[in-house]
UniProtKB/TrEMBL annotation:
<keyword id="KW-0472">Membrane</keyword>
<feature type="transmembrane region" description="Helical">
    <location>
        <begin position="596"/>
        <end position="616"/>
    </location>
</feature>
<feature type="compositionally biased region" description="Acidic residues">
    <location>
        <begin position="568"/>
        <end position="584"/>
    </location>
</feature>
<feature type="transmembrane region" description="Helical">
    <location>
        <begin position="150"/>
        <end position="168"/>
    </location>
</feature>
<keyword id="KW-1133">Transmembrane helix</keyword>
<dbReference type="InterPro" id="IPR052901">
    <property type="entry name" value="Bact_TGase-like"/>
</dbReference>
<feature type="compositionally biased region" description="Pro residues">
    <location>
        <begin position="555"/>
        <end position="565"/>
    </location>
</feature>
<dbReference type="InterPro" id="IPR002931">
    <property type="entry name" value="Transglutaminase-like"/>
</dbReference>
<feature type="transmembrane region" description="Helical">
    <location>
        <begin position="203"/>
        <end position="225"/>
    </location>
</feature>
<feature type="transmembrane region" description="Helical">
    <location>
        <begin position="174"/>
        <end position="191"/>
    </location>
</feature>
<dbReference type="Pfam" id="PF01841">
    <property type="entry name" value="Transglut_core"/>
</dbReference>
<feature type="transmembrane region" description="Helical">
    <location>
        <begin position="34"/>
        <end position="54"/>
    </location>
</feature>
<feature type="transmembrane region" description="Helical">
    <location>
        <begin position="123"/>
        <end position="143"/>
    </location>
</feature>
<keyword id="KW-0812">Transmembrane</keyword>
<feature type="domain" description="Transglutaminase-like">
    <location>
        <begin position="463"/>
        <end position="533"/>
    </location>
</feature>
<feature type="region of interest" description="Disordered">
    <location>
        <begin position="528"/>
        <end position="584"/>
    </location>
</feature>
<feature type="transmembrane region" description="Helical">
    <location>
        <begin position="61"/>
        <end position="81"/>
    </location>
</feature>
Amino acid sequence: MTARPARRAAVDLVCLVGTLALVLVPLLEVYGGPSALVVLVAGLLLGTATAVVGAVRRWSAITVVATVVVVFVLAGGPLAAPATTVAGVVPTPQTVLDLARGTASTWKQVLTLQPPVGADGTLLVAAWFLSLVGSAVAVSVALRARGGAAAAGALVPVAVAVMVIVLGTRRPTVPPVLTGLVLAVVLLPWAAWRAGLLRARRVVATGVLVAAALAAGLLAAPVVAGADRFVVRDELVPPFDPRDYRSPLSAFRQYLKEDAPLFTVTGLPEGARVRLATMDRYDGVVWNVAGDGSAQASGEFRRVGAQIETSARGERVRVEFTIDELAGVWLPTVGQATAFDVDDADAADGLRFNDATGAAVLTGGVRDGLRYTVEAVVPRVPEDGEVGRAPASDLVQPPQAGVPDVVLVTAADVARDAGSPVQISRALATWLAEEGYFSHGFDISRTESLSGHGADRITTLLGGDLMVGDGEQYAAAMALMVREMGLPARVVLGFVPEPGGAEGPVEVTGADVQAWVEVAFQGYGWVPFDATPPPEQTPQQEDQEKPSEPNPQVVQPPPPPPGAVTPPDEDTEQPQTEDPDAQDDDGALWRILRTAGLVALPLLVLATPLLVVVALKARRRRRRSRAPDTVARVAGGWDEVLDTARDLRRPAGRLATRNESARELATAFADTPGGGVVAARVGALARSADQAVFGPGEPSREHATAYWADVQETVHAMAHSVGWRRRMRARMSTASLKDRRHRRPKGTS
């Protein structure tokens, strides 16, 4: 830095940081908030400051990279991921994890969301990365590179501009023409000036060329390409987000009101169920699909190709669907689909499939007359005895919220005698189907059966005097009870039509709608359970509680209080499929180990070059001290002293003799603590080395060993004559490892 005039450095900063700020401005419109402005400004300032300090202090490239990583984490927490920090400032291990993930995944999120995308989660990591890393790289290249290589710093604003264009909108705040004009006018002359190629004649020629190119672009581009600008985000279809739609289970009774055919299906196997939606997340109000980013999430839908890989085993079928009155985005499917064939190309572009649940959606919505074919595998439903004592599948499901207490109390009491996961599931399904009553609530004169499956409705169903509902309530209640017993469960909304002919079509109406529960077992997958009472099991008038008519001759006892369900003793009555404490401990330990590994991995990658340098020096020192020729061993000891001085930035002359080198080293270390000791030792070592090399005969092994002991003491004194920072820097320095001319002392042959 001291070799370059301050004026040149100031021009570098103005040109590079100024153009970077200009090309980053369109991101403000993408994010749509002042938070992005703070992140961009902070990134430019911190990146520039890091590069300038590194150039002034003459840090190595590895040190600059390490400093940028530290700044990225420490400042990135409060700026780009404040929710993971303590008090919005102090980063945590979760901050490091989110920033690392965001560096790889945020680009896709910003590109697929419609602007303004906001600042939720780690969306700001993209802006933070571009501003911090872009400014640090551009300024470091300009201030540290020699000669014409410094002009390469002009490529960084251009690369950042390309990234901003990809992430940008159709009509950015700063017109692309203005951005290109500024980059050409500022960066081209600056690069020519830094490369030493700027001449008056070339300035005029370049100006004419730029003017002609701009005129051609402004006048001819609209004619050739049209007025609309190509934007990447407009060509991408955003991923299906289940949060944009209401819970499919909430529409259960709306389907019942549909008398017209919803869709027609041909080729449906006997007893097969038509799946519409699969839900595995409960929030106290509704069951819904969950898009948490995991592989097993019910809300993660993706594009599929001509074939869909599946590990399911069962009957292979080919089923044809024709949509009639069915509305919404959910597409009826059968089993585990292996291929889709949609007759409408536009509708096929919106097809999304979930491998974990077998459900499908059309992002543009289904329509009347849509025809498609599904090739699928329909798994066989195993009997309870076949499942036996198979454990529940080890699946991570979204956490439940707002579950009423009556769910766990009732489930524990009902399944008190069950000994295996399948027995627990069957006991809960049987109890609900046998003890409950069926009613859609359309005839309120007989009994009240409200729709919905929120916490209040489930509490009324399980804790009331009369258990009345339909598939919506019973499936929701059973899934909650199964989950509270520690088993993986999900709710499925679909249709179970009456079987038609062998090849004939079957019209599916609202009367065929059903909801059931699926429980996962190891080795058997998801097994369906029906908890809804049969339609003929309805509450009659005599089932309602009536006031007793007292007999005048007999004193009637008071009516007994309603039987409260007493929670059983956990150690003796409640079946436990696994030890919760052990599971929690294992899960916590695994999370700690995973976080530690994710934090240690980038640090290990960053430290790998430093470890390689240390290993190479240790290998060189061992080779020198163990050379079979004692003359080479002594000469290698002197080379070790010279290399140590070189790494400490106090090198001796390349062509100097050993005595001359010793005098130079004595002068170089004279102003350091212990400099007199170093001067005396290097002088003795130089004379001893000349004696061994030029004297008669060869030194003995004992002499060589003693010489290396003196070398170790001298190297130790030289290293401890400087501060610990320079000492650590010398250990990581590659100065002594670089290719250099072979030093031959004067007077040697």
